[in-house]
């Protein structure tokens, strides 16, 4: 899906890691939420409250998923999933455009 229709966008930015990671929250009529953002090169650690699917639109990163010992390379057009109440690391290699879906299980 390249566009979202009939949504509410929260104007205030979500800013992390001194502005190196930013996003905007999108709320859908069915109650679901996603965020659209950009990550600058660097290494970051995130925590999840809900299950997340991170879709990489453009760019390149490596992700270290919970319980994994090896980094996994992810490029534009690919995605990865992280379970709720977990933490994961990303090593962003180039400016990365992403869409993150927050899922209720």
From TrEMBL:
Catalyzes the phosphorolysis of diverse nucleosides, yielding D-ribose 1-phosphate and the respective free bases. Can use uridine, adenosine, guanosine, cytidine, thymidine, inosine and xanthosine as substrates. Also catalyzes the reverse reactions. Pfam families: Ppnp. One of its GO terms (molecular function) is thymidine phosphorylase activity. The lineage of its organism: Bacteria, Pseudomonadati, Pseudomonadota, Gammaproteobacteria, OMG group. CDD domains: cupin_PpnP-like. GO terms for cellular component: cytosol. It catalyses: cytidine + phosphate = cytosine + alpha-D-ribose 1-phosphate; inosine + phosphate = alpha-D-ribose 1-phosphate + hypoxanthine; uridine + phosphate = alpha-D-ribose 1-phosphate + uracil; thymidine + phosphate = 2-deoxy-alpha-D-ribose 1-phosphate + thymine. It is an enzyme of class 2 (transferase). Keywords: Glycosyltransferase, Transferase. Its EC number is 2.4.2.1, 2.4.2.2. It comes from the Bacteria. The gene is ppnP. This is Pyrimidine/purine nucleoside phosphorylase. Belongs to the nucleoside phosphorylase PpnP family. It comes from OM182 bacterium BACL3 MAG-120507-bin80.
